[in-house]
Design brief:
Length: 194
């Protein structure tokens, strides 16, 4: 019976979470970055953006990060489109403290309805940054993130994380394990009833 309970708890808590830190992406200019669960594009200028060594301005930015500034100076957003069910998204943003940064993250459903948004102001004298986070009880189809400070687009974006904390559909192997557990419990009951 204990085995059956553990199997059921395991199946019910199989919520997924993922992190993209851009370390495995080669530095260079891109029109899109395609990962297993999400595709990232830039909506401004020619649509190109850079994966570059951030120079480590401080937490939460380190190593490779994405940046639109060198390809296009503007407030147009990056867009991350999910091909899985997602209900929470977070991304780090930071700078070297040379200017003020007004950063935004907005989440939308598949009908383009705004589900949630977040704002972070990074003062001109602050090295580093912070995380912007959104969550929704509805599935997030995509997020937009952008910057509107003194030099729009001159911030580094890093550590994109996303998850679905809602109920998940168990994998077929979970059903097999639960079935085997039920058979085992049945055999044990039969054995002890003799």
């Amino acid at each position: 019976m204990v085995v059956l309970m553990l199997l059921l708890v395991s199946a019910a808590t199989n919520a997924g979470a993922a992190l993209i830190d851009f370390e495995s992406v080669a530095q260079g200019t891109y029109s899109s970055l395609v990962f297993p669960d999400v595709t990232i594009t830039y909506t401004g200028g020619s649509g190109n953006f850079d994966v570059t060594d951030s120079g480590n301005p401080g937490s939460p930015i380190s190593g490779n990060a994405i940046l639109s500034w060198f390809q296009h100076h503007g407030t147009e957003p990056f867009k991350a489109v999910f091909n899985i069910s997602v209900n929470a998204v977070s991304i780090g943003v930071g700078d070297f403290g040379a200017d003020d940064d007004e950063t935004y993250l907005a989440a939308y459903d598949s009908a383009n309805n705004l589900l949630a948004s977040d704002y972070y102001y990074n003062p001109a004298d602050y090295y580093g940054g912070d995380y912007l986070s959104v969550s929704s009880s509805s599935s997030i189809a995509y997020v937009l993130f952008w910057e509107e400070g003194s030099y729009p687009g001159a911030v580094a974006w890093d550590n994109l994380s996303y998850s679905n904390n809602g109920p998940t559909v168990p994998e077929p192997s979970t059903f097999i394990l639960v079935g085997a557990g039920l058979v085992g419990v049945g055999l044990l009951r039969k054995r002890f009833s003799r």
